[in-house]
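Hi everyone, sorry if this is the wrong subforum. Our group has a chain we'd like a structural model of before ordering constructs, and none of us has done structure prediction before. Sequence below.
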Amino acid sequence: MKAATQTLKTAARNCAALLTAGLLSSTALAADTPASIPTSFLGTYNLTYANAQSGSPITNGTAVTVVIAANNTVCLGGYTLTSPVIRNGNGHEAIWTESALGIEIALSSLLNGFNEINVGSSSGTWYGQLKGSKSSTSTTGCGAVTPPAPDMTKINELFALAQAKFAQYFPSSANAVNQELDGFIYRAYPDGIYLAINNGDVYVMGGTFGNEPSKQGSLEAILSELAGTDVDIDIPDAAQGDYKLVVSGDITVLGIKSSFGGITIDKIAAPSATDIPGIRDAVKASLKDINFVGTIEVSEVTTTDSAFSFRIAFTGTSSGVNINYNLLYNYTKL
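Answer:
Right subforum, don't worry. Here is the predicted structure as C-alpha cells:
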C-alpha cells in the first residue's frame, strides 16, 4: 500500500491531475450538483488498477486501498476528498476533486451498487479504473477530525479560578490535581464532584451537579465569566437625584450561585413604583454591557416616603453562556 500511495502522489504531481473518467466534456462542468453517497457504500475496498491507457501514470496491477466514509468522504493514496458532485445529470457517478493537484475520481454506480472507480486527467483523457470489492465495513481513520491539542495554560487557569471563586464545590487541596480519562482533563473534589474539560468544553459532575457530565459552555466563555462575575453598574449622569442606590444579590454561572459585594451609588433618582416598564428600561440602561435573554422580571416592589426597593431576575448571555441574575435594588433618600 505504501508503494501504491507513493505512485498515486508522484503521478498526480507529474501529470497535474487524476481526473474522473467518462470523457466528460467541458460543458458538463457547469452542471455539477451535490452528490450523496448511499450508506451501503461505506467501508474499506481492496482495489487493483486495471485497463491502463497510454499515458496512464499508474500501471496495471497496482493495489490501492480505498475507504468510503460518512459525510460523503473518500480516502485513497494518502488523500481525503470531500464534497462529491453529480455531473451533467449522470446519477450513476459521484465525482470527487482534489483541487490543489487537480485530482478527480468517479465512483459508480450510485444507482446499481459498487462497480468501479474511474480515473482520468483534467483534459478529459481517461486513464483507467480501480476494480475490486469491499473488504469490510470499517471506515476507521477516514474523515476523522483530529481535535486541537488542549491549551493547558487556559485549562489550569479555569481550575484556579473555579477553586478561588467556588471553594465550597472545588476546594484547592493536595488531591486537586489534573487527571485524564477518555479525552477528559479533570480534577476530582470532595463529595464526588468533578470539574472537567473535553475538546474545548467545560463539564461538571457529581454532588449537586448530578450523576452525568453536564456541559456548561466553552472553555473560553467560562473563563471569561469566571474572571468577571461581578455586575458592572453604570448609571447615566442624567439619572442623578436625591437617593442612594445599593445593589446586592447573586449570580449563577457554571451552575453555581454566588453572591457579590454590594454596589453603592449616591445621588441618583429613584424610578416610580408604578412604572414597571420604566424600571426595566432603567435596569437595561445601568447594565448596558449585558446581553439580555427574555424578560426582566420585577418583583417585591416596596415604597415608603424615604425608601424604595425592588428585586429583578433575568438571564444574560456572554459568549454563548447563560448567566442568571437575581438582584435587589434598594433606594434610600438622602
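For your construct planning: Helices lie at 2-15, 152-165, 219-226, 276-286. The CA atoms of residues 241 and 252 lie 32 Å apart.
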